[in-house]
Amino acid sequence: MSNSTSVDFYGWEVSYDDDHHLTAEQEPTAGRIYTMYHGASVNNARSIIRNGFNQSRDGMLGPGVYISRDQKKADRYPINNPPTDRVSLKLKVDVGKVKKIDTDNNAMQKTWHSNGYDTAWVPPNCGMKAVPSGLEEDCVWDPKRIEVIDIARAPSDAIKNELQALITQTRSLKNTTSQQNNQSGTTLWVAKCNFLNTLPLDCKMEHSEAGNLKSHIEYK
């Protein structure tokens, strides 16, 4: 039987077990929601807001979306871009099940997802040579777990205002699409009958979807 203890470490409320992995407390069951950050160029920030994140092909922790709970980490990226072309996106992230990676050449450094984890987590100042900055880093496998909610940093107020307006516009469009999809799934069956001396002579069942007649079945 596994012995486990709950601890609070760098903001994560986690449980350590005999396998030395950590699992985010799940409330709801999909996992906890955390605020994180991602650094991008201005053009890439526009694309991410409009279309969502794409999974990177590879990296220190394998494929996934690289983000951090430490905004200072995001503010450094893209490393080769000048400060005038760096944006830090503020994110809402459902981390799911988290694997702690805190040593170089960890056995699960790039295979954590195939072992049932949703996010890989590199704690701050863990001593890994691959993270010389010592800043916390996360890799989320599924981009759908991540939502852009604000702009934490931008080169200018004009760019920040533009990107914030784009977030609002994209969110509104998604909400409208979701409402339309919900409405299109509404199905109604309506019976229309002719009567003779209060007895139904014949009936027609009309099938409508989202208020539009799709088909009908007649009973006589």
UniProtKB/TrEMBL annotation:
Q: Which Pfam families does the entry mention?
A: PARP
Q: Which residues form the PARP catalytic domain?
A: 35-110
| Top-level taxon of the source organism | Eukaryota
Q: Which GO terms describe its cellular component?
A: cytoplasm
GO function terms (MF aspect): NAD+ poly-ADP-ribosyltransferase activity
Q: Which family does it belong to?
A: Belongs to the ARTD/PARP family.
Name the UniProt record assigns to this protein = Grass carp reovirus (GCRV)-induced gene 2p
